[in-house]
């Protein structure tokens, strides 16, 4: 049998397939496979891009939320912890020269304490209705806590100093400089972490914020945290009002499971206890001071 240039192959007995048909079939299969691979690659890339985008969004949202918590961004003013302030034991606010200290305290303007809020803001933040703003009845008047706190500090300071002037020479259980110090550290703390919670009011005196529910840190949880054996300093405040010259007596209260109980007990067995409030001659001459 004579064959032309086209080659044939024997398949299953007498059935023949032309090579040109086979090559076309292979080309179609190859192209189909190539298209399938291309489609798979494209779909994989799209899925990868979507996955990376979603992961990026969730990561950004996580860090954004974490940053807001870390910076204590307020839900009311949107202000977070953004500035630094150095704490000082002595300032112009504690200066014995009344001209200097009075001027310092009076320089704090408490006028920003009152703001007018519209209903949209009030509802968004779950605030109670308050007395109306006189020039726009659709708004309510609210007091900002931080400015109210400063107002109260200024009043306490003035009342205390007025009382001293009314009773000159009278013995003070707590020295004046201690009271001035206490008022000033409260001032510093208020200005460092001002509470911007808006307080509503009814038409009565001293009713600003009365009965308002606030979001707070758990005081008892903080107390419990300080009592952990790894942090507990065996310390007890013997008096908030009197100096304790023999201050080591305040460190005589280690917990049973404290790693320092044995050391403390051994010290007091060897040296004994002293009257916390009584200075002996040596201590009196040394001019020992309490740490507060």
Distinctive features:
disordered C terminus; 4-stranded antiparallel β-sheet; 8 helices; two-stranded antiparallel sheet; disordered N terminus; single chain; 6 strands; 292 residues; alpha+beta
Please give the count of helices: 8
Number of strands: 6
The profile of the biggest β sheet is:
4 strands, antiparallel
| Mean pLDDT over the full residue set | 83
Spans of at least 5 consecutive residues whose pLDDT stays below 50 are 1-17, 281-291
Listing every helix as H and every strand as E from the N terminus to the C terminus, the arrangement reads EEHHEHEEHHEHHH
Q: Tell the overall outline.
A: flat
Round the Cα radius of gyration to an integer and report it. Answer: 39 Å
What structural class do the secondary elements suggest? alpha+beta
For the record, give the distance between the C-alpha atoms at the N and C termini, rounded to a whole number. Answer: 120 Å
β-sheet strand percentage: 5-15%
Helix content: 40-55%
């Amino acid at each position: 049998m004579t064959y032309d240039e086209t080659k044939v192959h024997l398949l299953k007995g007498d059935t023949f397939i032309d090579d040109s048909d086979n090559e076309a079939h292979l080309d179609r299969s190859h192209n189909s496979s190539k298209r399938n691979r291309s489609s798979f690659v494209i779909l994989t890339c799209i899925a990868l891009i979507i996955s990376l985008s979603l992961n990026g969004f969730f990561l950004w949202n996580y860090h954004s939320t974490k940053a807001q918590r870390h910076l204590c961004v307020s839900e009311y003013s949107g202000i977070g912890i953004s500035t630094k302030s150095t704490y000082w034991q002595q300032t112009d606010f504690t200066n014995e020269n009344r001209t200097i200290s009075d001027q310092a305290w009076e320089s704090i303007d408490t006028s920003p304490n009152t703001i007018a809020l519209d209903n949209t803001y009030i509802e968004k933040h779950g605030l109670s209705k308050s007395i109306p703003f006189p020039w726009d009845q659709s708004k309510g008047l609210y007091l900002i806590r931080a400015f109210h706190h400063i107002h109260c500090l200024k009043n306490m300071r003035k009342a205390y100093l007025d009382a001293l002037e009314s009773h000159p020479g009278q013995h003070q259980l707590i020295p004046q400089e201690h009271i001035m110090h206490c008022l000033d550290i409260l001032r510093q703390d208020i200005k460092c972490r001002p509470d911007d919670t808006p307080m509503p009011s009814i038409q009565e005196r001293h009713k600003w914020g009365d009965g308002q529910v606030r979001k707070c840190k758990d005081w008892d949880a903080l107390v419990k945290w300080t009592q952990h054996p790894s942090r507990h300093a065996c310390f007890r405040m013997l008096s908030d009002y009197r100096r304790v010259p023999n201050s080591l007596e305040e460190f005589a209260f280690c917990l049973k499971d404290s790693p320092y109980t044995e050391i403390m007990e051994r010290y007091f067995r060897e040296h004994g206890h002293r009257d916390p409030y009584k200075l002996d001659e040596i201590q009196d001459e040394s001019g020992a001071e309490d740490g507060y």
